[in-house]
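Field log, afternoon session.

UNIT: design team B
ACTIVITY: writing a sequence onto a fixed backbone
BACKBONE:
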């Protein structure tokens, strides 16, 4: 499976913070926002990743992440001239996806919860059509809402319904088989002039090949499109990390746990950030995995 992170857009709701920086470069407590969606793809075992951003911000991502080899990844880059909808990412990435399946994640989303990696592994293994993830919300009128049966099959999908049939919001993580490229090519722009990801999901729904898995209690899904939500996300990450002593979306730790890099390579990455709490954490994680020399008896 290939992975796409959509980090485009103009970040207008976060001005003046985004006057010179991409929204996805902004810090969310102790790391750049882009680390959070990147970590989702890594948790799914994905190593080939396309990062789509605006032309003005492409160099910033290249400086931050390079080609991904330091994390055992292969990161490629593409540009979205103007934000024309989430589904356009599938057209921009069509050659990159080639004949593979694809996971598309929005660059301003945080997913964090128990057994998330196992949930992703199951979704990738059993993928037949589209696999979506739902999150129960208090105000479903503000979201794309999915209604499911007892088997998790998607029964209906509505964008910001006045009378919602459920409170399951469709989150910014989408898994598709290779049919998605042709589906995206046949889309027509909506009334607001965008290629809507909801229309992609509706196409799979019409085929009876769409699943929506609810993210259960104890799970957090946050999107960071406003100043308040950006602050709330940072406070959430700070609280979890300081209480539990384990970092969220530490891409170096994930690369080590996934077997993408060795403990020695992880240690080197941590030492490059010496003097920071983040670097100290990466160094500690790596050090625990490096075997200590056996002590010979005198």
């Amino acid at each position: 499976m290939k992975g796409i992170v959509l980090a485009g857009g103009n970040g207008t709701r976060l001005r003046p913070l985004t006057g010179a920086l991409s929204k996805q470069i902004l810090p969310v407590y102790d790391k750049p926002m882009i680390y959070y969606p990147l970590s989702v793809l890594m948790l799914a075992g994905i190593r080939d990743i396309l990062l789509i951003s605006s032309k003005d911000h492409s160099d910033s991502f290249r400086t931050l992440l390079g080609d991904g080899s330091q994390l055992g990844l292969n990161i490629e880059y593409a540009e979205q001239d103007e934000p024309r909808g989430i589904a356009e990412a599938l057209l921009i990435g069509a050659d990159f996806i080639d004949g593979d399946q694809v996971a598309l994640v929005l660059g301003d989303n945080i997913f964090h919860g128990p057994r998330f990696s196992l949930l992703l592994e199951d979704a990738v293994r059993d993928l037949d059509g589209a696999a979506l993830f739902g999150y129960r919300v208090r105000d479903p009128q503000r979201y794309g809402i999915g209604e499911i049966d007892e088997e998790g099959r998607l029964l209906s999908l509505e964008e910001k319904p006045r009378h919602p049939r459920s409170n399951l919001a469709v989150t910014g993580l989408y898994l598709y088989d290779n049919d998605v490229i042709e589906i995206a090519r046949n889309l027509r722009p909506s009334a607001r002039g965008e290629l809507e990801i909801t229309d992609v999901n509706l196409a799979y729904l019409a085929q009876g090949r769409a699943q929506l898995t609810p993210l259960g209690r104890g799970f957090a899904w946050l999107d960071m499109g406003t100043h308040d939500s950006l602050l709330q996300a940072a406070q959430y990450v700070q609280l979890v990390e300081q209480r539990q002593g384990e970092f969220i979306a530490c891409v170096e730790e994930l690369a080590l746990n996934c077997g993408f890099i060795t403990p020695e390579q992880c240690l080197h990455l941590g030492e490059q950030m010496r003097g920071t709490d983040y670097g100290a954490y990466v160094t500690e994680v790596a050090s625990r995995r490096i075997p200590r020399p056996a002590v010979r008896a005198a």
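LOG NOTE: The chain has a mean pLDDT of 93.
NEXT ACTIVITY: expression trials, pending approval
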